[in-house]
Amino acid sequence: MKHLDKKINAFLKLGKYLRKKQIDSKLHSLILKTQNNNRWFIYKNSLNALKIWGDSLRKENILKWSSKYNLAYKNNKKIGIIMAGNIPMVGFHDLMCLLFSNHIGIIKTSSSDPFLIPFLYNKLVEFEPELAERVIFKKKIDFVDAIIATGNNISIKNINEKFHSYPSILRGTRSSIAILNGKESEEDLKLLSNDILTYFGFGCRSITKIYVPYKYDFTLLKKILKEKSEAITLIEYLNNFKKIKAINEIIKNNFHVAGKLIIIESKNINAEISSINYEHYSSIDLINKEIESRINSIQCIVGNVNKVNFLKFGEAQKPNLWDYADNIDTVEFLLSL
After folding, report:
1. Angle at alpha carbon of residue 190, lines to 189 and 196, rounded to 5°
2. Scanning 66, 108, 220, 309, which has the fewest C-beta atoms within 10 Å of its C-beta?
3. Domains with residue ranges and CATH for the chain
4. What is the pTM assigned to this prediction?
């Protein structure tokens, strides 16, 4: 299918563009503009997200992902996409799914991340002019045939009330967890520190809770997290760290301090920025039951466990093209319309 080959080639060219050792001046300026617009989106994190996309957009990955679908031309429908803005570029996968499914996208980017995704779409049009006029970026979405939205539980509730009669994918708040057995290597824990701190703890793929055996020795983990977190200088993060530490001292919670990160004993999966939660476990069977009971609140599970749904340490922030948020296949949804 020539139209599919053209799309694949456009994304391959985009991947090559993003993998360049030296980014061009326009992209550099947009990353700075993004940082000025949202101080949590520091230059390093936006660049990291772009490089991850560059690595994902390789021929073997795109072919593996796209080959499972029948992507022949069909009737175009208007798809509203409301993108989240908790980490840089988080809505780009929805855009990619849309372009491969041949629908028209009416896209509302987050006010936290309004520059990079439109820029990359324009790059795709530069590489393949047939992709022009497939996407319209708007501040408000109306008159669509279906909706895809990502946000926190409150915003998703509001979106559901407005679009309740439309075919939809609505993604609310989720968190990710890690299961430790106490036998992890120093390298394992360094990779885990990336899963925890890469985007300051924002995003559903950031590890916000760890399960540890009783009598777990936190010494090495605290040392590694201290080394990783000490590099953080963002004042908003540091203010949050001071607040969380003070609150837990006042209410006399059990917690550990690892540099600029608080590790709090809690049954909650969600954690405040600048903190993660931990809980002791006595058996893997009990952990499995815990996971099953909270499966709709969990995005990723990390650990040295030989199970299909477990990720290796360091992989949480590097999803494959076929790793769908909330395990809902976006392309299948779009092709079903």
Report:
1. 85
2. 309
3. 2-173 (3.40.605.10), 175-311 (3.40.309.10)
4. 0.95
